[in-house]
Amino acid sequence: MMTAAEIRQQFLDFFASKKHQVVPSAPIVVKNDPTLLFTNAGMNQFKDYFLGNRKAEHPRVADTQKCLRVSGKHNDLEEVGVDTYHHTMFEMLGNWSFGDYFKTEAIAWSWELLTEVYKIPKDRLYVTVFEGDAKENLPKDEEAWNEWKKWIAEDRILLGNKKDNFWEMGDTGPCGPCTEIHVDCRTDDERKQVDGKTLVNNDHPQVIEIWNNVFIQFNRMKDGSLEQLPAKHVDTGMGFERLTRVLQNKQSNYDTDIFTGTIATVETIVGKKYTAGDDKESIAFRVLADHIRAICFTIADGQLPSNTGAGYVIRRILRRAVRYYYSYLGYKQPLLHQLVPVLATQFEKVFSELKAQEAFVQKVVKEEEDAFLRTLEKGLKRIDDIINTTKEVIDGKAAFELFDTYGFPIDLTRLIAGENKLAIDEKGFEAALNEQKERSRAATTIDTEDWVEVFAADKTSFVGYDAVTADTKLVKYRKV
Ligand code: ATP
Ligand code: MG
Ligand code: MG
Ligand code: MG
Q: So what does this thing catalyse (predicted)?
């Protein structure tokens, strides 16, 4: 069986053999884009090439990109741990053409890689092609259809709608159709049972999307019309954890060697076995194995947990993880920080930044866990009381009290409420939150973030934590 590390390397080697320059992942934390807190796709770091603001140094590039999808346009948080293939943090393998090759090569190479290098049986693959959208003035992607016809049986090419098969950066700007590749991981028996019925996307939990190939060929104008771009681009993204699951013949991403090391460590710590089921305990194992990656890699890339912005996203993920081990694995001590060394070692050769800052990351995570565990027990008692006296909707003020006094992020309260078939008065919560903000704005004029940018020049990049104070509040930036 191929290891995950080998699978990643084969992807990069394959595109290097097709004259791509292999580049490092951009940081998962985005520091200079007001529209984005975290990298959520491989293309983020190349945005300026598509917009024509900058010229690519190399027309063909490939990489593996650390991505996080827990806020904004892509928010998969609620799926994570419940299903077996959506993560908070994941690696997106990608290849790009900046005004160079287009559909013919992109499609031929994805087919070659999947079927000849990775040897996925051809009758396990499906592809989707954009069907067009008359209302939006968008044509069907006949070119992609014709390219696929060279490789795959026509009944395995399916048409997809604008939501799944057309990509736009925003209301205006570069856009184009995409073609997606799905793998049917059902057992032969299962396949016989649904006999003949084609399944893609979420129709069956074992038929999963692995690779998206976007063809950026139009420019959407302010009046809604489309112009052909003078230079056409290819932008692809393949989920590394999903690919590994397919190639290692597993039913779940968590059964691959990307996650088994972490899960085994959790088993040892809590003295329980992971049974890969749909029960709360199994979900808790998956949530921990998932969330600790997001926590480690964001901190290693320069974002500390805090009460605002990107820092609060990390704090929310961390507290969610703490509540899972506390409530469902019966473990009442700090746990997450014990997993940092597992990941630091596992990823040393690909993302060495974690190993380089292992002790520091561990310290930050431990402090966060300690702080939340101090109020969690009381908070859980309080929410129990609230739940017992609530019929349908938890009062906004009560949700705010949980937030303010016990440090429960609203999505954690929402999760627990949902488990008890209750909703939250979200508007009431917002109102209480805003009231408090007004009060504190009046009380102080200094707005402090948890980290400090030492150099604020335009060309800075995060190079690591040093000069760490006792409460880990100082982050150092260096000019590059
Ligand atoms: P899905 O429909 O499964 O949510 P998507 O269509 O949102 O995926 P894309 O934006 O097309 O995903 O991203 C390209 C690839 O990245 C996907 O084909 C998938 O393999 C992978 N991917 C996307 N989201 C996640 C995630 N949350 N966790 C793991 N892999 C993901
Ligand atoms: Mg998605
Ligand atoms: Mg999709
Ligand atoms: Mg997709």
A: tRNA(Ala) + L-alanine + ATP = L-alanyl-tRNA(Ala) + AMP + diphosphate
